[in-house]
Amino acid sequence: MKTDKMMIAAIATFGALMFLSAFGALSQSNDNSAADATYVLTVSVTEGSGTIEYKIDNAEFTTYTAPVPITAGSTVVVKPIPASGYVFYKWVTPTNLFSPTLTFNDVNASINLNAQFKDETTAPEKTVLTFTGNNVIWKIGGDSGGAVQVGDTFSFFPGTVITVKADPFTGFKGPITITVDGASYNAGDNFTVPASNATFEATGATPIQNFTVTLHVHGYGTVEGAGTFAESSTVTIKAIADEGSVFKEWSDGNTEAVRTITVDSNIELTASFVKDSGGPGEGSNNGGSSMVIYVVIIAIVLAVICVVVWFLWFKKP
């Protein structure tokens, strides 16, 4: 009877363990499904004639025919392909984007797009934007994406919203001033492409100057940190005393042996070192004076002893 009860208990325990294991696996499965959430890419053409191609991550472009599932975190690129005799005009959804190619990074929601194409004979004429300036690179953001070099032109449908920046070439500095047909423009602001052609001009890029840091030594020690540096560089200089010496100060009065300086002009500094006396105060001679005193005292004591010995010797009966 006792054996039967033990068997029943064992079977019950085994069943409970199997249930817990299955429950755990189910919970694991639910957690994974949450991590692998999917969204949907939906595209439609609401005007004109053309097709849409898309690619997900590193896959090849594929012609869109039906809603496409997208794994969370993917990168999706969509581009319009106009039919013969048509041009791409804009994306109605998202609201009035004129850039043909759209890129969606780290997708975390479904994507819904509506494209419009125009007959070449009725499509609005594009506006030509020209970018000029010396020693700068233009960067076009917003609808257009990408970047253009100095002197390039870009064509947009009127109403396109873009942002424009001009950065100095390597070896040059700003600040850069941007104008559009003579009117001031703040880099990064939204710019709505007008119906007539326009010219962006950038000025203010100047060469970055190089300056020299020269270091000298007065006394016994060495210095580190000299050289030629671009303006506004931060440089660390060091004064290292030889054995038996200590660093005193730099010629500009600074007493930090290791310090940082900002190089905005040619700089010349001298590090001064003095002997390490080993006693109180810089350059103290107390040790030498004490030695002289000791010698004098010993000489006096010896003289007194000699006198006493002489006196006692010659006073013997």
Describe this structure in words.
With 317 residues, this protein is of the alpha+beta class. It has 3 domains: 38-119, Sandwich (Immunoglobulin-like), CATH 2.60.40; 127-207, Collagen-binding surface protein Cna, B-type domain (Immunoglobulin-like); 210-275. The chain is 20% helix and 46% strand. The chain contains 2 helices and 26 strands. It has helices at residues 2-35, 286-314, and strands spanning 38-47, 50-56, 62-63, 68-71, 76-82, 86-93, 102-104, 111-119, 127-133, 136-142, 147-149, 153-156, 161-168, 172-173, 177-180, 183-185, 190-192, 198-203, 206-207, 210-218, 221-224, 227-230, 233-241, 245-250, 258-263, 267-275. The strands form 7 sheets. The protein has a 5-stranded mixed sheet with strand order 12-9-18-15-16, with no helix packed on it. Strands 4-1-8-6 form a 4-stranded mixed sheet, with no helix packed on it. It is elongated and about 145 Å long.
